[in-house]
Write a structure and sequence with these properties.
Largest sheet of chain B: 8 strands, parallel
Order of helices and strands of chain A: HEEHHEHHHHH
Number of helices of chain B: 12
Shape of chain A: flat
Distance between the termini of chain B: 62 Å
Oligomer: heterodimer
Strand content of chain B: 15-25%
Strand content of chain A: 5-15%
Distance between the termini of chain A: 24 Å
Strand order of the largest sheet of chain B: 1-8-2-7-6-3-5-4
Number of helices of chain A: 8
Structural class of chain A: mainly alpha
Number of strands of chain B: 15
Strand order of the largest sheet of chain A: 1-2
Largest interface: A-B, 79 and 84 residues
Radius of gyration of chain B: 22 Å
Number of strands of chain A: 3
Radius of gyration of chain A: 21 Å
Structural class of chain B: alpha/beta
């Protein structure tokens, strides 16, 4: 397995799967012990603060004088909330199409998400060929997220990259341009 | 000042002591320091410490560069002290010289203070500057970020390894919200806590929302914006997606909005991206969203009203904020600049199942095998 591919899947875990238990140091795959601390801290926060019956007032009283109240907000299945989610989905779909189809565009639109970033990273970073099948699998797993046609286009585009020298130079230029 | 116990010490700040420099303390002690309060000048204390050369490691470029910039201005006319910055390029700050020049400065007896970003510190002192470890006292500022950011920055573990390469008397880590650890070596480090007498706690309005949180937060922000007339609103959210949802939920005009986030997330903010300019919030924005890069260390001198939103929704739950983080965010205000604090949150339906260390380890290994098998 090449180093580039190891780096990519560590990055994939760090970005999307709540952290990688491994890290690369001087080309060696080593354990990441701090992740255990992180996970434990997160369990504590979830159960102490964000679980039913949590005593938020007493937790915060270590640092603050607390004025506590509860609010009955909009129901998650209300028309308003459904409409908000539809608007966000539509916005992100259009943004994803932009990212997938225009490698030279300037990324000025806010709220590129991790999937789009990963797609862009894949397009720009010149992954070794051996990574492509896994990449396709990753994309297939996320097809439902956006639009099948556009993701297929993105995959077709990746097929064309043979990672020969001119493409690598082209990608280097892109990397500099975006300071990736 | 009172110290007690062998491995657990205490520094007491009297009512008249605003900063650590007001006490009789000569140098920051080695080991872990839980300072418990923000804005007591601990980093400045290390920079001003004339008894030793120091490397002060900060978690972000924004933090290291702003502190380096301020220190350089202060020590401009001092020929015995040199301030250097070690991190990615941010403009007119004195960069760390090459090892030969640095050695020559040390031989001349010049006091060296290096403000470093974690990533650059690890790359340099685990490499070509490795021979300088014996010449410096290491201070890791905002040490809890080592744990909290380890999930997406594996460099944190490298930083911790490097920390233990420094002699035990010449290494310190400090935070206002020091966290516990399962790492035995870290737990064995001596712990010093700072206690401030007569501290008045700020008031926080906590609102538990049953239902859709972004709408409730957004609506209050809009109402406050109307009432506050000119006072900026700072919103700390636990994810970028939450910022998006708040903006869409109550149709906030994007011309009034800026997002302060790390350089790494710059493209996620797009045209809404902004930086804190020497403690001043972007002048054109009425609502400024901040992400985790601005939760610790930075100073905000503008007056503002603070909203902290932490949503357990599916897209946001990986970065739920703790009470310590909310306190850290509040602590960004300087000159009593934060007039009100609101904290909006919701809860899960059930408790989270806690996995043991072995269970945690097993799960990613299995899914990582699956990822590799895709080849």
């Amino acid at each position: 397995m090449s180093l580039g591919w190891k780096k990519t899947y560590i990055q994939y875990y760090n970005n999307l799967r709540g952290g990688c238990f491994y890290r690369l140091k001087k080309d060696k795959l080593l354990s990441n012990h701090l992740i255990y601390d992180y996970k434990q801290i997160k369990y504590d926060i979830r159960n102490d603060l964000y679980s039913p019956g949590s005593d938020v007032e007493s937790i915060f009283s270590k640092y603050f004088k607390v004025i506590y109240s509860e609010e009955e907000g909009k129901a998650l299945d209300s028309n308003l909330v459904i409409r908000i989610h539809e608007q966000i989905f539509e916005y992100k779909k259009n943004l994803f199409i932009k990212v997938a189809l225009n490698k030279y565009c300037i990324w000025n639109d806010p709220f590129l998400d991790e999937y789009m970033k990963l797609a862009r990273y894949i397009l720009l970073s010149g992954l070794p060929e051996e990574a492509l099948p896994a990449l396709k699998a990753f994309q297939l797993r996320h097809l439902h997220k956006y639009d099948r046609r556009n993701l297929t286009k993105l995959m077709d585009r990746l097929e064309k990259y043979d990672f020969s020298e001119p493409i690598k130079i082209d990608m280097k230029k892109l990397l500099q341009e975006f300071k990736f | 000042m009172k110290f007690s116990g062998a491995n657990e010490n205490k520094i007491v700040l009297k009512k008249s002591h605003k900063y650590l420099s007001d006490t009789k303390l000569k140098s920051l002690p080695a080991g872990r320091i839980d300072k418990q309060y923000t804005g007591i000048g601990a980093t400045t204390f290390e920079i001003n410490d004339r008894t030793r050369n120091s490397i002060i490691v900060c978690p972000t470029v924004a933090l290291a560069s702003s502190k380096a910039f301020a220190a350089q201005q202060k020590f401009q006319s001092d020929t015995h002290t040199k301030i250097f910055y070690l991190g990615s390029n941010v403009g007119a700050i004195l960069r760390l010289p090459d090892p030969v020049e640095l050695r020559s400065l040390l031989v001349q007896g010049i006091r060296i203070k290096i403000l470093a970003v974690i990533d650059s510190f690890v790359q340099s002192f685990d490499g070509e500057y490795g021979s300088f470890i014996q010449d410096f006292h290491l201070l890791i500022d905002e040490a809890d970020t080592l744990q909290l950011d380890s999930v997406f920055r594996s460099i944190m573990e490298d930083c911790l390894e490097l920390y233990f390469k420094f002699p035990s008397a010449r290494r310190t880590m400090i935070s206002a919200t020091m966290l516990g650890s399962q790492i035995l070596k870290l737990r064995k480090e001596p712990l010093t806590t700072i206690e401030k007498i007569g501290m008045i706690k700020p008031t926080i309005r906590i609102k538990k929302v049953k239902g859709y949180l972004p709408y409730s937060v957004g609506r209050t922000i809009k109402e406050t914006l109307y009432k506050a007339r000119g006072t900026k609103i700072v919103v700390a959210a636990n994810s970028f997606e939450l910022i998006h949802e708040i903006l869409v939920a109550v149709r906030i005009d994007l011309t009034d909005v800026k997002i302060l986030c790390s350089e790494g997330s710059k493209e996620r903010a797009g045209r809404l991206f902004a930086r804190l300019d020497r403690g001043q919030l972007p002048s054109e924005a009425k609502i400024v969203f901040i992400t985790s890069a601005y939760f610790v260390g930075v100073d905000i001198y503008d007056p503002f009203i603070l909203f902290v939103a932490s949503d357990t929704g599916k897209k946001h739950r990986s970065s739920l904020l703790s009470a310590e983080q909310v306190f850290q965010i509040y602590g960004r205000a300087r000159n009593h600049g934060c007039s009100s604090v609101y904290y909006y949150f919701n809860t899960f339906k059930t408790k989270t199942k806690v996995r043991t260390r072995d269970e945690m380890k097993h799960k990613p290994k299995a899914s990582m095998r699956a990822l590799i098998s895709c080849r």
